[in-house]
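Worked Example 4.2. Consider the chain below.
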Amino acid sequence: MNSKRMFKVFFVSIFIIVCMLGFMPFQSWAQIKELRIGIGIDADTLNPQEHSTTLPQNMSDLIHDTLLYQTPDNKLEPRLVTKHEVSKDGLTYTLHLRKNVKFSDGTPFNAKAVKLTFDRALDPKMKVPLRFAITHIKEVTIADDYTVRIQLKYPFAPFAAHLSLTL
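Applying the procedure from the previous section yields the following structure tokens:
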């Protein structure tokens, strides 16, 4: 075999191997049934209102959805809230909730669940590490099954961004 032909055979062989390896992960994705991740500690809880360290909080962030999502470029996108409105005085936030969402146990996600979450997080008897993000809430009221109004004690511009935290 001359050197040109050997080069072509070698190049084509490498190309075929690279293509085969490149497509293998896509084929294996459908076969993944379980994902195991090694971590340094056991989570004391996966309830975002009760965690005690950063690692369980990070795990909660991966498990639980938020009302809004803050993108890496600091834009807020809807998640469990389809739209939110802020009153002109900056004291009232109206949250329009996504319909047809259920918790993992089948319980519907609605205004009652959102109010309960905020009321529980604001309860001084609870040890909630992220309470600082919502201490300026005066009151949470239900307007209808899928609308919640949050009244603040004073205008607080970053409040909408705080709705992207896992509470």
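The chain has a mean pLDDT of 84. The CA atoms of residues 69 and 75 lie 8 Å apart. Compare this with Example 4.1 before moving on.
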